[in-house]
Here is the input.
Amino acid sequence: MMQNKLLKIIEEAERGRIMTVEEMTDLFATADGKVVQELFQAADRVRHSAVGDEIHLRALVEFSNYCRNNCCYCGIRLDNRQVERYRMEPDEVVEALASAHRMDIGTAVLQSGDDLWYDTDKIIRIIRGIKESYGMAVTLSIGERSYEDYQAFKAAGADRFLIRHETSDPELYAELHPGMTLEHRLLCLRRLKELGYQTGSGNMVGLPGQTCLSLARDVELIRDMGLEMAGIGPFIPAEGTPLADAECGTLNLVLREVAMLRLSSPLLMIPATTAVATIDPQGRQQALRCGANILMPNFTPMRYRESYRLYPGKACINESSEQCIGCMSRMISSIGRTVGRGPGHSLMQNDECGLRNDYRTNCKQDG
Ligand code: SF4
Here is the structure.
């Protein structure tokens, strides 16, 4: 019987057996509520034993909404003329993190569109400013750059880098990202791993044209690349984009992926993203109960927040950082967990390149 088969897959995955793509496809596709609940509970148990009950906070600063790309789902894509654009000066970015440091948050996450106005020197100034002023861990989420840039940012002190692959389906990727390729995205990830960054990727769930098989391959990709972090969010249609009228992704499918990621890569750092809170007020709590262990309070100055709209209805943009921390602390204790202290580095060992199977290739090759 299908239910027994799926429950057995979950039980074995909890004990460490690697799930096949076919098995994960079945877990994405099943309509059996008992199986889905067991999947979530097994992932929560693995999260507890692998990374513990601490939830680490990462202070997010969205420092520029300029972008040279035209991703079809993104509210700040180049061609969206309705967006009021802004850029923060390097010193302003550093200053925005002062209160996060006072609140004992150990990591700064610097996010922007793919904006080359911030050349190598400006990014280095920001990294050094944060390191010298606060000693926080620095995570960059600034898109595709050259190997030399990644190398220079690492030498300046950057600890982590996030660059989501969004979908592991190369054709769908090409359709959604004009002028970009999945191959180059993965090359960036390999380079970052090779340079010793704690590296994160992630994907959207519910994209038009996406299948359960393709979602299973997203989990496989994150596992086989040996990534340290993965952010999963629902596709949310945004005004002023070619996908404005498409259907939104569902929370349930996002949670299934979070759970399968936890079973597949027990030590992964998985945020409960703002996007899940946007489609469901309880979304983050639910994600934290089925595998997630990170929250990202927003420290972007209030005057810019409204303009960093990757999708509409974004949760928590009107709350001050202090309110945000208060709310998150209550959320954390209400589910019986604790706030993590210190930088909350990945517990994974970063081997020579950290890559498995097909992903182990020469990172310096051009793409
Ligand atoms: S998803 Fe990122 S790279 Fe694509 S348009 Fe939006 S900000 Fe730019």
Notes: Residues 350-367 have pLDDT under 50 and may be disordered. Residues 67, 69, 71, 74, 76-77, 113-114, 143 surround iron/sulfur cluster (CB under 6 Å). The radius of gyration is 19 Å. The chain has one domain: 19-337.
